[in-house]
Fold each of these.
Amino acid sequence: MTVTHPAGFTAAGVAAGLKSTGAKDVALVVNHGPRFDSATVFTANRCKANPVLWSREVVKDGTVKAVFLNSGGANCYTGPEGFQTTHAVAERVAEHLGIGSIDVVVCSTGLIGLANSREDLLDGVDAVHAAQSTDGGAEAAEAIMTTDSVAKQVVVEGAGWTIGGMAKGAGMLAPALATMLVVITTDAVVSASDLDAALRAATRVSFDRLDSDGCMSTNDTVTVMASGASGITPPLADFTEALTQACSDLAMQLLKDAEGADHEIAITTLNAASEDEAVEVSRSVARSNLFKAAVFGQDPNWGRVLASIGTTQAAFDPADLDVAMNGVWVCRSSVPAEDPSKVDLSAREVSVTIDLKAGDARATVWTNDLTHAYVHENSAYSS
Amino acid sequence: MTVTHPAGFTAAGVAAGLKSTGAKDVALVVNHGPRFDSATVFTANRCKANPVLWSREVVKDGTVKAVFLNSGGANCYTGPEGFQTTHAVAERVAEHLGIGSIDVVVCSTGLIGLANSREDLLDGVDAVHAAQSTDGGAEAAEAIMTTDSVAKQVVVEGAGWTIGGMAKGAGMLAPALATMLVVITTDAVVSASDLDAALRAATRVSFDRLDSDGCMSTNDTVTVMASGASGITPPLADFTEALTQACSDLAMQLLKDAEGADHEIAITTLNAASEDEAVEVSRSVARSNLFKAAVFGQDPNWGRVLASIGTTQAAFDPADLDVAMNGVWVCRSSVPAEDPSKVDLSAREVSVTIDLKAGDARATVWTNDLTHAYVHENSAYSS
């Protein structure tokens, strides 16, 4: 189910031989209409993979009829040959569906610099097209996994309409998305421009506020397609709220499955002069290797929090900062307060709360701890 | 020797009980003149430790007659009481030397949020003053070590004048300095304003281009004192060159002793539109945990280099980037070139060269790999 939960969609996931393990590695999600509205956001990385270079042309007119995804190779830094492979894949999908290739988004994930066999990919298109069905969502979600340990899926129910989604990503979760592929479907009637506004609002407070390891990928794509098959046009605010719920749910699934992490850390900055400054402060802490290693060691090292805050340009008085960890205010007015030994960091979920006393804006950024397993996975994952 | 190599200086390092191990933990460097010119740069962190808050007032008039340093406690986030401790230490040093406390720089390093016993520190002042001698430089260098495994010292010989220096720091080496205390002495005749210009020029291309783990400390201080005891006034360019050599030598010693590191990585960006952009690009790679973990795993993962470059705003064509590792051009025009298996990453020294093809400026930033030992040390180092 999931991406095939809303009416009007079929999907499938099959093995095309791109993964040496023989696991599923290609997926297809098809919108059968009656409407084909869509919106997409891509990685902000300037060095974009070939599927992103192709797909950003596809999405310009707000119409997307199918999304093809493969794991087992990112098709990034593979040059004009790699771009032609993406184009050939889109053409083959379009041919099967009787549509134009310019309505086919292509997403790839896996190793960078690796050119997959074009023939393998085209055979995969044939196979996944043949396999698609109205309950193929789970297999599609499985086929896009790389170092993910579990498939990520979500369903949100509206008033007579629904949203379904799937995601992959287990590292490089960083601002403006990162090694993250997300496909969201809905049977609500939503225009492309409304979808775009809703998607930007939803990603701004979900995927954009994940910062697992500060690294930004080259392939990230979040696409939403609306079939209109429910015949119902929800108020935009209702739809945006549901879409935000779906994106936040998927984002938390990504966070919890981050490579090698022992803890999920929510860093909330309160009473900032602006939301942007609250994000800047929270993100600076999320990027501190020293702080993240301390959380791994279950050490409530609030000094490393203050040292990170001090690197930002946000409005605050350096002598009047409060910091809590798991609700214990270990620092008040920039000096030690409650006993840090009261902070129990044995559970996976950790909260850090920072009071800047400079305004009334707030924001939360989510990150993971820095662990031996993170170093191990990312030193062993061959280039 | 080292800080006591130039004429006009005495120094000492003794144990004052601040370190639980009983190792040396307080140091004193005294300038006996005839001149007392000085220049200092501090951490850019807005959350500054008490010794920095004190010392930045001391250095304003360009006159410094003594530097007192302690390890075993950073006196950071310790509030007004901590500031008074720093002040009391400066007063005690001044009393012993018959000078004003406003000519005494104080530096502290160690745990944040920890208030050392003021009595212990004052006793330390008494002891270190009594111990000072014209060959106490090595003991002073030893007394400022924290997680450093070796003392860092340097001597540079000029034409009838010399420069000596000592440094500590083994983590949080980041832009604009980081957990780094450096004292440099010279017997050349150099005015305070010339010293300031020379020091800024020297640190800009040495300490400021170390980025061990992206974290910036709260206590960093680099002070240079000129006694004029040689009676020789070198050309400013000669002095600046020698000072740059001293700072670069100490910076490389810091890099090689970085906590838990297996590799020293020099990231050089060539043909940038400006030196600032070359630094920005090199630093973005130095900050990539994924790239640094790959080097630890001896994996020449140039895709992670390109992905980092893509996060910057520097001028370049994303489709026309060249990257070499240890001289092997593994990427040309953003596609695979020479065989990455030719890159041998078994030695500690690694070079990454990036050709932006956008101008004629260049810069090198130095970093370390991300290792199990880094995570271990920084998760175990208690708050």
Amino acid sequence: MRQILGASLGFMCDESFSIQRNIGVVVKKGKITQVGEYQALCREFSDLKHEFFDGCVLLPAFVNAHLHFEFSGNAVSFTYGDFGAWLDSVIANRDVLLGMDTLDKHICDCIDECLRSGVGIVGAVSSYGYDLKMLAQSPLRVVFFNEAIGSNPSAIDTLYRNFCVRLEESQSYASSSFIPAVALHSPYSLHHIFAKRVVEIARGLDSPMSVHFLESIYEREWLENASGYFYKFFTQIFQLPNPKPFYTITNFLEFFSDIKNAIFVHCLQARDKELEFLKQNTFSIVTCPRSNRLLCNDYLDLQNPNLPNVALGTDGKSSNNNLNMLEELRTALFGYKSNDLESLAKKLLLFATSNGAKALDIQSGEIKVGKNADLALFHIPELSSLHNPSQIPLHFILQAKSAHRVYIDGIRVL
Amino acid sequence: MRQILGASLGFMCDESFSIQRNIGVVVKKGKITQVGEYQALCREFSDLKHEFFDGCVLLPAFVNAHLHFEFSGNAVSFTYGDFGAWLDSVIANRDVLLGMDTLDKHICDCIDECLRSGVGIVGAVSSYGYDLKMLAQSPLRVVFFNEAIGSNPSAIDTLYRNFCVRLEESQSYASSSFIPAVALHSPYSLHHIFAKRVVEIARGLDSPMSVHFLESIYEREWLENASGYFYKFFTQIFQLPNPKPFYTITNFLEFFSDIKNAIFVHCLQARDKELEFLKQNTFSIVTCPRSNRLLCNDYLDLQNPNLPNVALGTDGKSSNNNLNMLEELRTALFGYKSNDLESLAKKLLLFATSNGAKALDIQSGEIKVGKNADLALFHIPELSSLHNPSQIPLHFILQAKSAHRVYIDGIRVL
């Protein structure tokens, strides 16, 4: 479908966060083919269907770069305030973790919640494949990370076979809006033989690889000293007599040395050496502020000059109160209390658009010729007449309540 | 009306944050006359109308202890990120400050927003009296702070007369749910002669006095050194040739030495000496986290042992994105990233209930015999079956979306 979409304000989501008034975007075959002033484009392409959204902001659909749809029923299931207490509560309540009888309903609600908050693209980590069909059939553009997890050497073959079956099944749904990929759960939870096999598969795929990395102080302590919470975790819960980490931090990172694109989720405890490795390899971090506060009482230091590309995610409902991307943005604005507000607002919006698309290796996330027409519209008429235009991004985050429209490949999905 | 209200969970909002399951509350003539187990109370008072709210939390209606309804149309009017830039933008846009043609509509929406977020009681600062009638006729219980502001010596008599007219008019509406009171705007904005007269009036009233106090570093710098932002403010904007502060901080506090009850709003820059003065006099601080972050990039240090009673407010829309008390609570939970989550959640809920009532000198804010039946109900069925009951207050803040019912004096107002 060819059309022109227009709006009072356009957030281009380029590096300098340009804002264009009376923006017009020509969409052909799902791509942005021209960007300019709406009326001028309407004159130039007078045969095209065109629609102007007065009082609206047009911007790239948000990218929620890390979440778990399979835990969509678990918003009130677990203990918050300490990563160890949280993981203990997850293990103790494995029976409620999935809640199979209502899982489809919960996943459906969460897909809807994503769309309503302006999200068009997700990096969805799937531990079991239970979310596969719903996500493949959803209007979202999905990078579907089949996750490998398991540390018991005697179970590796079974786990690996199961992983391969899930991956293959997801590949049967592959399309331009459903991209099968693989994820390693984390260095503390994945046997090195299993990890090695999965990484070999990842090398053959064209999609990014995802991993939870250095989320908690306990993980760092375990990998560096084989002690602390995880020592107790493996001895007491998994009854291992003398558990040892499978990797040093450096060893683990070596897995990624010839991976084209990888996203490291959380990284709260990553130090400059690790961050530099990510940056040199043009990998990305996905930061999930609410999840990080609820589990680890901390946020990623956004002022560290060694940060690589940073994207934003909500994580799953098992570590967040909802999947609303607007609330994630607002929480970050207030969570990073000392960061300059205006520049933080722009930075966060880039995390949630162009940086997210870059992390997931998707040609979206910017209003730019050649990009996918993955777009969102928000009706906030006050923004157009703001006395201080440099605060438009800030007031957008403060005021945006729900998306007015979401388009994927130029097709309206909300 | 006599009735029994029951709910699956009751937050008593006593100091130890007791939670009672299957709570029942007997309400007579607007007061709580008995608290116990719902079924037992129904048996004991079998003639009373009774209603049980399954899956609900019953708690005292929230107290929004500081807000400005007159700025209800100004959510997107001003510059955020620095107190000076904000005040400059307020002065530069005085014409939009009130927006008289739509003010009533905005105030009406804001009263509704308060109720929907479970607020039953407000400490409303009124600079002009434009919100008087709407608040007097609203279902909210209101402490109505007629505010004195003005530093120009030649205008004092006029300002004082205007203040007295406003106060008198508000007194004509006085009732148990509408309590006229007075407020000093702040030490930087109020001539000492004007302040002195207002304080004399306050001594004769039975209601608390309110004041914005040490909100910004600029205010402290001005009061201590007669320099900085406010020096520029008075010389450039008010064209005063050699401006001087009207008080030292100590001088200003002396006004309050024989005031029975006073609330000091913000206090971000208050030091231990000032906090101790407040504590010794059993005064209160009202903290407004979102406003504080947006204007001053900081939060009140809740771990300071010298803090007096602390209540919670949203401030007006001129320094917040909305007046939703639940969002204020959630923002604080994430804003204070290092504070222990469980105890912070309880603390914040007490700020918003019993501490707020104490600050405003209202016999509400607790589920306790003798208190006003100012109550709120929230439908969050997952809370009753939480695996870790000590996290009920935390998950309440995370999950509460809007009040199911609000009662003032036992009468349903939402």
